Backbone:
C-alpha cells in the first residue's frame, strides 16, 4: 500500500513539474495547484482507506434532512 502511495506522489510530482512551466498567470497556477492538491489527497485517502464514502453519499447526507422536512409538511 505504501508503494502505491509513493507511486501516486511521484507521478503527481512529475506532472506538476511539467505543468508548472506552462502556467503563466499566478491566479491560474494557484487554482490549478489547489485543485491538484485536493485530488492528490483524495487519491491517497482512497488508496489507504477503501471504505471512503463517495460524492453520492455526501449529497444524500446533506439532502436527507431537507427531504424529510419537505415531505413531512405535505
Residues:
Amino acid at each position: 500500500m505504501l508503494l502505491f502511495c509513493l507511486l501516486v506522489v511521484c507521478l503527481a510530482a512529475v506532472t506538476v513539474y511539467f505543468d508548472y512551466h506552462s502556467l503563466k498567470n499566478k491566479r491560474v497556477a494557484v487554482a490549478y495547484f489547489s485543485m491538484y492538491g485536493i485530488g492528490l489527497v483524495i487519491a491517497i485517502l482512497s488508496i489507504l482507506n477503501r471504505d471512503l464514502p463517495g460524492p453520492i453519499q455526501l449529497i444524500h447526507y446533506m439532502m436527507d434532512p431537507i427531504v424529510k422536512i419537505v415531505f413531512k409538511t405535505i
